[in-house]
């Protein structure tokens, strides 16, 4: 069942539409970097008297595929990207468990295997699907941009944050960290959404849950933070953008200790894991009884 469910997700028209939207958003975000590079080229053609020509030329030569990738994750367009990804995944996966249970498929599915096996297969298929979509996206943009804008080992990559001891492998590891964090967050949000069908009984509302999960900590941190700096600091550790952009924060030297790094990495996943465990137990208790 897991393989057939996974294939149904991967080879759907919705997956193609989602990837097209993600690529479109990403390349729109890259336009600012391209415009910045072109502006430097114009300045080099007509240099001002106080212009550091050598340094500006070094900046231009340092633009490569990684410049575009890192700038995208450091831009406001990344917020739009996250919302598009959450919306797409919620439309494709959000109502699957709800639909199977509330639209007459539950008895048929559970007659073939136990409810626990059914829900585990569905969740595993969704996890694999999210990993597949994000792998396809991150691999594609990395390969395309490095082919079109290759890295020149003679020049330091032009970025908005410092890259100490820069190497191709080091830059790839930064990209990998963005990919892993995005996978973790999306998997946790979608799995939790798929498990709370016992609480949300409307198929349209269940599809809005990922967006709500993303926005609530953001809104609370911004409003409560104005009233109490301590509460704002605590809530800020549960904001998705803080978690998703840890590499950018770390490289910008806003994180100076292991403790601060762990405070960025751990609170959000731990909260989600606890909620998922509780939701899974409640989900199995409710629906396993319904199909006995």
Residue runs with pLDDT of under 50 for 5 or more positions: none
Strand content: under 5%
Shape from CA axes?
elongated
Q: Quick check: average pLDDT?
A: 84
Q: Gyration radius, to the nearest Å?
A: 22 Å
Describe this structure in words.
The protein is mostly helical. It has one domain (2-290). Helices cover 78% and strands 0% of the residues. It has 15 helices and no strands. It has helices spanning 2-10, 13-45, 53-61, 65-73, 77-93, 96-102, 106-110, 115-148, 168-195, 203-227, 229-236, 240-244, 246-251, 258-265, 267-290. It is elongated. The two termini are 20 Å apart. The mean pLDDT is 84.
In brief:
The protein is mainly α. 78% of the residues lie in helices and 0% in strands.
Q: How is the topology of this model organized?
A:
Elements: H1 2-10, H2 13-45, H3 53-61, H4 65-73, H5 77-93, H6 96-102, H7 106-110, H8 115-148, H9 168-195, H10 203-227, H11 229-236, H12 240-244, H13 246-251, H14 258-265, H15 267-290
Helix pairs in contact: 1-8, 2-3, 2-4, 2-5, 4-8, 4-9, 5-9, 5-10, 8-9, 9-10, 9-15, 10-11
